[in-house]
């Protein structure tokens, strides 16, 4: 009986955790609505990728790499100004941004981070505007 109760508890935790992770993702259409409400959009890809594909209009370009993580985090916090303010991270396909959003939530208590599901590739494939000037 104890084993069954433990298994049920673990499965419940996994389901709740999975649901919480999904709530952090945004579709392209959802992101456009958030942009209209002035969400902070941060493109975390490398500079050469910004130049190749462009960026979402009015997004900040803040390249993320593990070796400069402390400086990146400092700049991110200055950018959002308030740990409770919503922001969205953009990566190529969304995976890197997703992982980073959950790390920021768990380790730094930045609870209002989101990521674009499918990343900049999904934005471009949806024929949304990108900015190419740098």
CATH topology-level fold name: Oxidized Rhodanese, domain 1
Main sheet attributes: strand count, strand direction, barrel closure: 5 strands, parallel
The tally of strands reads 5
Overall pLDDT level? 85
What does this protein structure show overall?
- Helix content is 52%, strand content 12%.
- The chain has a single domain, classed as Oxidized Rhodanese, domain 1, CATH 3.40.250.
- The termini are far apart.
- With 134 residues, it is α/β, with parallel strands linked by helices.
- α5 links the parallel β4 and β5.
- It has a five-stranded parallel β-sheet.
- It has six helices and five strands, in the order αβαβαβαβαβα.
List keywords for this structure.
134 residues, 5-stranded parallel beta sheet, alpha/beta, 6 helices, Oxidized Rhodanese, domain 1, globular
What does this entry show, briefly?
The protein has about 130 residues and is of the alpha/beta class. The protein has 6 helices and 5 strands.
């Amino acid at each position: 009986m104890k084993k069954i109760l433990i298994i049920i508890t673990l499965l419940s935790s996994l389901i709740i955790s999975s649901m919480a992770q999904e709530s952090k993702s945004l579709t392209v259409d959802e992101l456009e609505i958030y942009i209209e409400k002035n969400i902070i959009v941060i493109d975390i890809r490398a500079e050469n990728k910004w130049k190749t594909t462009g960026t979402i209009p009015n997004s900040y370009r803040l390249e993320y790499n593990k070796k400069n993580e402390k400086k990146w985090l400092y700049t991110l916090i200055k950018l959002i100004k308030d740990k409770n303010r919503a922001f969205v991270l953009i990566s190529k396909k969304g995976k890197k941004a997703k992982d980073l959003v959950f790390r920021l939530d768990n380790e730094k208590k930045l609870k209002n981070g989101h990521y674009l599901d499918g990343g900049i590739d999904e934005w471009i494939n949806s024929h949304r505007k990108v900015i190419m000037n740098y």
